[in-house]
Amino acid sequence: MMGVTLEPAPNYRRVLLKVSGEALMGDQTYGIDLATVNRIADDVQAVVRQGVQLCLVVGGGNIFRGLSGAAQGMDRASADQIGMLATVMNALALQNTMENKKIETRVLSAIPMSTISEPYIRRRAIRHMEKGRVVIFAAGTGNPFFTTDTAAALRAAEMKCDALLKGTQVDGVYSADPKTDPDAEFHETLNYMEVLSRDLKVMDAAAISLARENNIPVLVFSIGENGGLARVLSGRGRYTTISN
Description:
alpha/beta, 36% helix, 8 helices, two-stranded antiparallel sheet, 244 residues, Carbamate kinase
């Protein structure tokens, strides 16, 4: 009788996945690529089936970036609020795709929008995850001048997550942009202070500081690889770990 190949057990029980808005564009220059959203939903489904409690924070840069709007003369607070609304659109797209795959999903928005999402209530979010539902946090922190990276670190701390996974366009943290510098050095492990002192462009300083204060490891990996999320959670594949 042929043996059955079992997937390695995940190393974490509860995790937060940060997905940038740009990751949802696929090969497009703007908007939401549904094929890419579908692939990310497949990766989420694979880890949920392994019993991992999962929540997500999604960015909005594929639709609108507050900093870019401010640079063109908009009031920064107003520009950031438009960016928060963009994250809600992305969250609803992710929810729809996941529920088409029979993944129970809830969108919780930091800006109350009762007709399309639930308000963010920490205990409610935790309860959803305990019931096996995927929770998507929309609208960042609900405040201007904070990035969705900071929102991810904040929610990871509030949800008592074992790790924060940052899905990017590259497979980890490098000393320079590997797309433009062939000599860029890959970092397998880093500590929080190295990231801050060397100004490595992983997440903004507030997000890294929050992760450090709450001792939440940050795992940086490529969201563009099929099955990448499950591999990282089981300690396989190529990724960077930022911790103490």
